[in-house]
Amino acid sequence: MAAKIDGVKVPRDKMHGEGWDYDGNMANVVIYGQACEQLKGVGATSNVQIIFGCPGIIIESRSRLRRFAGRGSEGAPRSR
């Protein structure tokens, strides 16, 4: 699993200082530190991605993200 904000990958942080981790029930993703502040800030971003994948699959870079802007996680257009 990976989390991205504005195309920038946010690292997993099990110490809950800077990054993301699952909550205590492993049912939700929680963002911590500067990434959390960025999301809460004035003019907060709306481009947040939580990406699920299989072990060994590389999460694509920022350049590929731009190519699929406005599309779902499989690259298909999002329904509106």
Q: Main traits of this protein?
A:
two-stranded antiparallel ribbon; 5 strands; single chain; 80 residues; disordered C terminus; alpha+beta
The count of β-strands is: 5
Order of strands across the main sheet: 2-1-5
| Structural class estimated from helices and strands | alpha+beta
Mean pLDDT: 77
Instruction: Give the termini separation.
Output: 25 Å
Q: How many individual domains?
A: 1
Q: What about the largest sheet?
A: 3 strands, antiparallel
Uncertain parts = 63-80
How many helices in DSSP terms? 2
* Beta-strand content estimate: 15-25%
Descriptive notes:
- The chain has 80 residues and is α+β, with helices and mostly antiparallel strands.
- The protein has one domain.
- The chain has helices at 33-40, 62-67, and strands spanning 2-5, 8-10, 19-22, 29-32, 48-51.
- The chain has a three-stranded antiparallel beta sheet, with no helix packed on it. A two-stranded antiparallel ribbon has the order 3-4.
- The longest helix is centred in the middle third of the chain and has 8 residues, at 33-40.
Brief rundown of the structure:
The chain is built from 2 helices and 5 strands. With 80 residues, it is an alpha+beta fold.
Topology:
Elements: E1 2-5, E2 8-10, E3 19-22, E4 29-32, H1 33-40, E5 48-51, H2 62-67
Antiparallel strand pairs: 1-2, 1-5, 3-4
